[in-house]
Amino acid sequence: MNEYYQHTSKKLGLCQYKGGKDLYRLIVKDYLYDFATPENIHELGKSEVERVFNQIQELKNKNKKQFDEYTENYKKYTERELFSYLFKLRKELHKNNNKYFHNNLKSNELYDIKTVQDKKNSTAYYYPSDFQRKKKGTFYINSKNVNFNNNELLTLSLHEGIPGHHYQIERNINNPKIPLYLKYYDSTAYVEGWGLYCENLYDYHNIFDYYQKLKYELLRSLRLVIDTGIHFYGWTKEDCLSYNKKYLPNTNSEYKRYIDSPGQAICYKVGEKTLHFLRDKYLEKDPNGIKDFHEIILDIGPIKLDLLISEFKKKYICRL
User: Fold this and answer.
1) Distances (CA, A) of 152 to 49, 72, 157, 245, 319
2) Is 158 helix (H, G, I), strand (E, B) or coil?
3) Cα–Cα distance between 48 and 46 in angstroms, integer?
4) Statement: the pTM of the whole predicted model exceeds 0.85
5) What is the DSSP letter of 206?
6) Which end of the chain has less neighbouring CB within 10 Å, N or C?
7) What kind and span of H or E run contains 290?
8) Where are the alpha helices (DSSP H) in 201-289?
């Protein structure tokens, strides 16, 4: 109380402190690119929010009858049913991986699935294997969360499991082409960008599963606006809630995460857009080369985005 509390503030972001805006500029560059600034990331976010939000509205308008009958908890599983479905999804996504990758995981290399650890409030997260391989990588799911929507399970499994975090990290650990120091290092923009990118590596058949996928993409787009809003533009709690309410009203507590970790949340969308950009460039020359493209990205490993692009150019030229 005497040493810490008296120096705290009711304001949210880094910009309230002397030199805070300059520090945030450095954080944005360090996480992303030298040319990335709070201003252009903020504008990118607003553009992405509008694009994805319009996709959601279009989906609803095309399927108005179904959405009129749809509620956020329309498919409610018991805890046992939820885990049964997640293990079924794991098997399906493992098989689906053959469409996009030359090298799939062996059946004994699949991730485990458990309920979230005590006192964790997250919807879901992934915890990787140790390097001694004494435990499996694990997808933790908040099976006790009464607000949890079961149509999220497919997108969450793609992001956290296969071909997202689990597949990428397992490949990273087992890949002899990746030096040891890179196996212990990860670029947030690469790793989380990959996870978000992988949410698209599936042919969604259920419109409500796809709806939840779009909502997750909208959430990552909102992060660009709100994170920069807090730490560079001096947004208040009310500003964050007002912006959230306009587009995604059920994410009212998300802004607290951005306060605690400036810049981390902007990595998802920028990493994903980088991977989409590189993929489109590769497929222009080799329309059937999606597996080769993914092999290049995974063989490079989890490095910073500017280095990823430069290394990709070298390998891209060699392949094509």
Assistant:
1) 19, 10, 9, 20, 37
2) helix
3) 6
4) yes
5) S
6) N
7) helix 290-300
8) 207-231, 237-247, 254-260, 267-285
